[in-house]
Design a protein that fits this description.
single chain, alpha+beta, eight-stranded antiparallel sheet, four-stranded antiparallel sheet, 16% helix
């Protein structure tokens, strides 16, 4: 998938059981009997959790559901309170919430997990058990159930009549506005129908790019969020509802939207 980074093993050594410990005693290990059934994971489960984890928030001041990816079978959702993305990973039945650290653990194996077991036994139901094609297994503590309200957000907008993102158009915006904002500034970028402006200070625009855009009126975005969306979007669409605006975007297996913000008066 072109939106997922190359995933390589993060393991420096291989061990084969049984191992010999002090005194010549052999250390043996038997996999526990989980008592549940192994279910197939979506074909693009690894790409999905990896992609959506890039759109989560970090910091104790954010609620738990902004710091996790939400798995609803083949639909995987992440949000940072500005952008929300949905990745269509394929067919699956698993429903769970995974923290970013848990996503990194799964990626560290170096290949995609193929099955999951969610045992119902009281001694085991606090864990999710993942299994790989080569027999590798990983048990992760089960977080809260996925936040159902996130799914409803995608049914409130129309996912048609998008504008294709031209590669030259994308390159010009990324090239002009990939600057480092001054401390305590967000690097606000304003998009007009026929130009884009921004700068290192939020209260003044010192960069202007004359370029046509699909918006019908002025919209303002924080630099980091806007660029993260434009880097992956293949199609975009602006929608306006009263004083609020959103940038909808689509890509291979991906759809999402970014909420615009109101400019703070200087």
């Amino acid at each position: 998938m072109k939106h997922a980074p190359n995933i390589a093993p993060n393991v420096s050594r291989d061990f084969t059981l049984p191992l010999e410990v002090y005194g010549g005693e052999l250390l043996t290990f038997e996999l526990p009997d989980l008592g549940g059934e192994w279910q197939p994971l979506p074909e693009h489960f690894l790409e999905g959790i990896s992609f959506t984890s890039r759109f989560t928030a970090s910091g104790s001041h954010y609620p738990w559901w902004m710091q996790t990816v939400h798995v609803f079978g083949g639909s995987i959702i992440g949000t940072n309170n500005r952008a929300i993305v949905e990745y269509s990973a394929g067919e699956g039945e698993l429903e769970c919430a995974l923290s970013v650290k848990q996503v990194r653990l799964i990626k560290a194996i170096g290949s995609r997990p193929t099955q999951v077991n969610t045992p119902a036994r009281p001694t085991a139901d606090k864990y999710l058990h993942f299994k790989w094609q080569n027999g590798s297994r990983l048990a992760l503590s089960r977080l809260m159930r996925p936040e159902q309200r996130l799914r409803k957000l995608f049914s409130r907008v129309a996912w048609n009549e998008f504008s294709a993102v031209d590669e030259n158009w994308r390159a010009q915006i990324l090239g002009h506005f990939s600057f480092k904002p001054i401390k305590d500034n967000s690097g606000l970028i304003t998009i007009y129908p026929e130009r884009v402006t921004g700068g290192v200070f939020d209260n003044r625009a010192d960069i202007e790019l004359p370029i046509k855009t699909p918006t019908e009126r002025e919209v303002v975005f924080e630099q980091a969020h806007l660029l993260s969306v434009l880097k992956v979007a293949s199609e975009i669409k602006f929608i306006h509802e009263g004083d609020h605006s959103k940038l909808l975007f689509k890509a291979d297996n991906v759809r999402g939207f970014l909420a615009a913000r109101q400019r703070v008066p200087s």
